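Reminder to self: keep the SMILES exactly as supplied, no canonicalising. Ligand is calcium ion.
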Amino acid sequence: MAGRVGPIARIAALGAVAAALLIAAPAAGAATLLGQLPGGNSPDDCVENASAAQSSVAAGTPYAAPSDGVVTAWAHWGDSGTPGSGRLVVWRHVGGTSYTVVGRSDTAAFSPGSVNVFTTRIPVAAGDVIGLHADTAVVSCFFSGMAGDAIDTGLGNPAPGETLDLATPIPDRRLNLAANLEPDADCDGFGDETQDGSINPLGCDKEAPVTTITSGPAPKTRQRNATFAFVSSEPGSSFQCQLDGGAFVHCGSPFGLLKVKKGSHTFAVRSKDLAGNVEQTPATLTWLVKKKKKKKKHHHQHHHHHN
Ligand SMILES: [Ca+2]
Ligand SMILES: [Ca+2]
Ligand SMILES: [Ca+2]
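Structure tokens returned for the bound complex:
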């Protein structure tokens, strides 16, 4: 790995004091750099509890993820005075000035006059954009960019899944923020370069399997025992079976039920693929177990048999 520059080092290289961080550079790969640190620019402060998303950049490295992946590290230039504390927030723009939190880092205290680098693990989708939350009254949030740059800001500290209106725009500025986006070929939420100890060779599977019931009892029957056979659309899937809305239990095909009570019953079966995706709508079969015939009939059959 000699001569290669790791993703954290690449972030640090944007700041003014990169040299010290180069020493601890991990293995490099195809990580994408997001955002930008101010370098020689003097950053402006955010107010306490401000949240901000970079809504556009006129040129240069994007703040929005160009592809799906995992944000594995982030960096912030700590102002020389009181640098404060804050966190990385990854936003998904939902329209207008509304943004939903995809994920966020732990709160971090910034050291003055240096590039502050932190590790994190936030799975993101293409188009998600990095931003900041200022925990304290003084955090050097943004610096002068170019015409066409814009930041959307608001007050609040929303949790993942919550939406905040970042209704106050700040033009011609860039957030004092950079991040590493690593690929996640097996979609397990761990960045493939520095976090994933085992990259699934099957790749990314987000599709749930589909179960088909291939045989079962007749729609109306006097048989109180029932046997079901079923298949999954994906080889290697496991199954769970359910009778009449009870608990799902691990099962296999064929699956037998003994002494089912008379009346209408519903059998349901769902499958789970090797990547852990569970079918949301199970396959079902409804049938009616009719009352047994009287003993008289038995006698008759028995008698008949002997003739
Ligand atoms: Ca992975
Ligand atoms: Ca993996
Ligand atoms: Ca699948």
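Points to follow up:
Residues 7-182 form one domain.
The longest helix spans residues 295-306.
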